[in-house]
C-alpha cells in the first residue's frame, strides 16, 4: 500500500521545522512531498504533487492557507489548519475540517490530529470544506479602517498621494514596488505582502508572486508561444505575468 502523501505550509521557519519533526514521530510512514514557506510555493506544490493531506497555516504572506486549502479540497485532499487564533480553529473543527492545531503545536494534540486524519482517509463521506473556507476568509478579510485608502509614493524628486481607487496594479521590482494608475506611476518601498494585508481581496488579485492587479482593470489573459500566461491591463501597454499558481483564477471567465 502506498504511503499517504502530505504537504506542509508554514511561513515561520522554526515552526515549520518543528512540525516536520513532530510529524516524523507521530506518523513515520507519512510521505511529506513538499515543505513550503509561503502560499505561492504551496499552491505550486499542490498542483504538482496533489497531496492527500495538507498541514496549512491559515495566515501566510502573499497567498493565505485558505487559498491553498481550496485547491487541496478541489483535488480531493484533506486539510489540517495550523493557527494561533483559537476562534478560527474551533470553528474549523466544528465545521468538519480534518482537524486543527493551535500553535505552538503540542505532540499529544498532533497525535490526535493524525488519528483523525487517518479515519477520514478511510471514510469516503468526506465533508465539504468550501463553506468553512469561505467563512474563515470573510473573518480574515480587512475591515473598514484596516483597508489602505491612500498610497504615499515617490514620483521623481517629489512625493505624492495616490488614492487606492486610482491604482490599476502593483508590481514588485527589486527592493521597490511600482504603483501604476491610468495616467501615471510611482515607486513605494512597502513590500507586496504588507500591501496584501490592507487590500480588499475582491478588488485586487494576486496573479504572480510579484504582481497585484485590480480585477476591474484586467483586459484579457493570453498564453504566449511557450504556454505562459500573460495579462494585459485596460488603457495600458504593460504585459504582466500570471504564474501557474494563480491561473485557476481565470478558468471559466
Description:
This is DNA-binding response regulator. One of its GO terms (molecular function) is DNA binding. With 253 residues, the protein is α/β, with parallel strands linked by helices. The protein has helices at residues 13-26, 39-49, 65-74, 86-95, 107-122, 130-140, 192-196, and strands at residues 5-9, 31-36, 53-57, 78-83, 99-102, 150-155, 158-163, 167-173, 176-181, 185-188, 204-208, 211-214, 218-223, 229-233, 239-242. It has a five-stranded parallel β-sheet, with helices on both faces. Strands 10-9-8-12-11 form a five-stranded antiparallel β-sheet, with no helix packed on it. A hairpin with a 3-residue loop joins β9 and β10 (185-188). The longest helix is centred in the middle third of the chain and has 16 residues, at 107-122.
Gist?
With 253 residues, the chain is an alpha/beta fold. It has 7 helices and 15 strands.
* Overall 3D shape: elongated
- Rounded to an integer, what's the Rg over CA atoms? 20 Å
Number of helices: 7
Mean pLDDT: 84
**Fraction in helix:** 25-40%
Which structural category fits the helices and strands? alpha/beta
Please describe the biggest sheet, giving its number of strands, its sense, and whether it closes into a barrel. Answer: 5 strands, parallel
- Which spans of ≥5 residues are poorly predicted at pLDDT below 50? none
Beta-strand segment tally: 15
Amino acid at each position: 500500500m502506498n504511503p499517504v502523501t502530505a504537504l506542509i505550509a508554514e511561513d515561520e521557519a522554526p515552526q515549520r521545522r518543528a512540525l516536520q519533526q513532530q510529524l516524523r514521530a507521530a506518523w513515520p510512514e507519512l510521505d511529506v512531498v513538499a515543505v513550503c514557506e509561503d502560499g505561492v510555493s504551496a499552491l505550486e506544490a499542490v498542483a504538482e504533487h496533489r497531496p492527500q493531506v495538507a498541514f496549512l497555516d491559515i495566515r501566510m504572506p502573499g497567498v493565505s492557507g485558505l487559498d491553498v486549502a481550496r485547491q487541496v479540497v478541489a483535488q480531493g485532499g484533506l486539510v489540517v489548519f495550523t493557527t494561533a487564533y483559537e476562534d478560527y480553529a474551533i470553528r474549523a473543527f466544528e465545521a468538519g475540517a480534518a482537524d486543527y492545531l493551535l500553535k505552538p503545536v503540542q505532540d499529544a494534540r498532533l497525535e490526535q490530529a493524525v488519528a483523525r486524519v487517518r479515519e477520514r482517509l478511510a471514510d469516503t463521506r468526506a465533508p465539504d470544506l468550501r463553506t468553512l473556507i469561505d467563512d474563515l476568509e470573510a473573518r480574515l478579510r480587512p475591515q473598514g479602517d484596516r483597508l489602505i485608502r491612500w498610497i504615499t509614493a515617490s514620483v521623481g524628486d517629489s512625493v505624492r498621494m495616490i488614492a487606492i481607487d486610482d491604482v490599476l496594479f502593483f508590481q514588485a521590482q527589486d527592493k521597490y514596488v511600482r504603483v501604476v494608475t491610468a495616467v501615471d506611476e510611482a515607486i513605494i518601498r512597502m513590500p507586496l505582502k504588507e500591501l496584501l494585508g490592507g487590500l480588499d481581496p475582491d478588488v485586487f488579485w494576486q496573479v504572480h508572486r510579484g504582481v497585484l492587479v485590480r480585477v476591474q482593470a484586467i483586459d484579457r489573459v493570453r498564453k504566449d508561444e511557450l504556454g505562459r500566461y500573460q495579462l494585459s491591463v485596460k488603457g495600458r501597454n504593460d504585459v504582466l505575468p500570471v504564474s501557474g499558481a494563480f491561473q485557476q483564477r481565470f478558468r471559466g471567465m
